[in-house]
C-alpha cells in the first residue's frame, strides 16, 4: 500500500494505552544503555492511561505557536546506519531545514539517535531501543546545560537571549512502524 493511500484511509482517532510514570518520591532516571543494549529505568511507578490519539497528519501546525510542525523533507541519505553519511549529509540537511522552518540565524546540529523496536536489528546494528513511556528529553535545567556542554565558550552569551532545542524526527524506513506495546 502506498503512503498516500495509507494516509487517506487512516482513522481519525485510535485508542491506545500510553505509559506514564507517577512520581512516588523516588528519583526518576534512565540509565542509557550502550548501542545495542537495553535502557534501565528507575524510580516512579508505572501509570498507564488509555487515551484517544487523533490523526494530525492533515492538520496545519505553526512552529512558533504549537512548538512543532509536520514538514515534508526529501533526503539524499542512502543509509541511516552509516554514521559518516549521517554526519556529512544529514546534518547539513537538518541545519538547512531547521533554519528554513524556524527562521533562526544559526543552527548547531548535535546528537542523532536511531531507535528500533526490533531486538534483532537493534543488536545487529548497535542502535537504541524505543522509549516505551511518555517522557520529555529536556527540562528547565537540562536544556541550558546542554548548551553549556556543546558550546562552552559561547554558552553565557547564548543563554542570555532566546534559544531553542529543536528535535527533528523521521522514520528511516517509511512508513513509520507501529507498535502495540507502548
Strand and helix layout:
Elements: H1 3-9, E1 13-22, E2 29-31, E3 40-42, E4 45-54, H2 63-66, H3 83-102, E5 115-116, H4 119-125, E6 128-129, H5 142-150, H6 155-159
Parallel strand pairs: 5-6
Antiparallel strand pairs: 1-4, 2-3
Task: Give your account of this protein's structure.
With 182 residues, the protein is α+β, with helices and mostly antiparallel strands. It has one domain (3-159). The chain is 29% helix and 16% strand. It is built from 6 helices and 6 strands. The chain has helices spanning 3-9, 63-66, 83-102, 119-125, 142-150, 155-159; strands at 13-22, 29-31, 40-42, 45-54, 115-116, 128-129. Strands 1-4 form a two-stranded antiparallel ribbon. The longest helix is centred in the middle third of the chain and has 20 residues, at 83-102. The chain starts with a helix and ends in a 23-residue tail after the last helix. The model has no long low-confidence stretch (mean pLDDT 86).
Amino acid at each position: 500500500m502506498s503512503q498516500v493511500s495509507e494516509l487517506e484511509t487512516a482513522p481519525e482517532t485510535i485508542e491506545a494505552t500510553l505509559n506514564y510514570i507517577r512520581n512516588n518520591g523516588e528519583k526518576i532516571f534512565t540509565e542509557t544503555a550502550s548501542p545495542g543494549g537495553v535502557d534501565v529505568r528507575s524510580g516512579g511507578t508505572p501509570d498507564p492511561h488509555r487515551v484517544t490519539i487523533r490523526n494530525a497528519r492533515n492538520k496545519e501546525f505553526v512552529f512558533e505557536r504549537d512548538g512543532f510542525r509536520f514538514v515534508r523533507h526529501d533526503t539524499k541519505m542512502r543509509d541511516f546506519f552509516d554514521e559518516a553519511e549521517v554526519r556529512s549529509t544529514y546534518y547539513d540537511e537538518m541545519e538547512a531545514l531547521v533554519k528554513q522552518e524556524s527562521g533562526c540565524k544559526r543552527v548547531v546540529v548535535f546528537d542523532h539517535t536511531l531507535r528500533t523496536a526490533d531486538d534483532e536489528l537493534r543488536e545487529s546494528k548497535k542502535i537504541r531501543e524505543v522509549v516505551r513511556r511518555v517522557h520529555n528529553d529536556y527540562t528547565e535545567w537540562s536544556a541550558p546545560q546542554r548548551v553549556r556542554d556543546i558550546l562552552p565558550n559561547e554558552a553565557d552569551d547564548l543563554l542570555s537571549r532566546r534559544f531553542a532545542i529543536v528535535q527533528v524526527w523521521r522514520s528511516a524506513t517509511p512508513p513509520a512502524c507501529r507498535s502495540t506495546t507502548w
